[in-house]
Design a protein that fits this description.
The protein has about 170 residues and is an all-alpha fold. It has a single domain, classed as Hypothetical protein af1432 (Orthogonal Bundle). The chain is built from 9 helices and 2 strands. Strands 1-2 form a two-stranded antiparallel sheet. Strand 1 and strand 2 form a beta hairpin. The longest helix has 25 residues.
């Protein structure tokens, strides 16, 4: 099942999503929807409902994980499954680290949400480089291993960006 926007907003309240995280999620949803509409106009088959719901709920577990620790993407996927939103659990679960990326396969909803999330810092649309700089400062903690993992993730995001932009042209 794919939740409606109203259901997503209700879940944000139920899971005590902080206002700044809600604002971020709303902008990610807008970016993901615009990308998806452009891709659909270029002939790519995507579910706008899945993209919108996945984007709105991608940080559904972030407040809880900020308070108690843990992987908010994995916990968010669990929340989706708990509510029988099986069709978007993978999108939510992979919005931080995209797994099983194949540049030659058809574009899928999780790639759009993953990319859109990387283009939104707080509630502003930014370049990938600006978002990378922020994440390195915030989470890199001057630890070479974390900085490398974040950098590797952004190299993958650049590949996703290229894949998305090639289809839109």
């Amino acid at each position: 099942m794919i939740p409606s926007k109203t259901e997503c907003l209700d879940l944000m309240v139920k899971y005590r999503m902080r206002d700044n995280i809600r604002a971020h999620s709303l902008v990610v949803e807008r970016v993901a929807r615009e990308i998806s509409q452009g891709l659909r106009e270029a002939g790519v088959s995507l579910s706008l409902r899945k993209v919108a719901a996945g984007a709105l709920l991608h940080d559904i577990a972030k407040t809880a994980c900020l308070e108690t620790g843990g992987d908010h993407a994995a916990k968010g996927a669990e929340i989706c499954l708990k509510h029988h939103f099986d069709e978007i659990a993978e999108i939510v679960g992979e919005h931080v680290r995209l797994r099983n990326y194949h540049p030659q396969k058809a574009i899928c909803e999780k790639e759009v949400v993953y990319y859109a999330d990387k283009r939104v810092n707080h509630d502003r649309i930014v370049s990938l480089e600006e978002r990378l700089d922020y994440l390195l400062q915030r989470y890199g903690r001057n630890e070479a291993r974390l900085r490398r993992l974040i950098g590797d993730n952004f190299e993958l995001c650049k590949k996703v960006e290229k894949k998305l932009s090639q289809k839109k042209n």
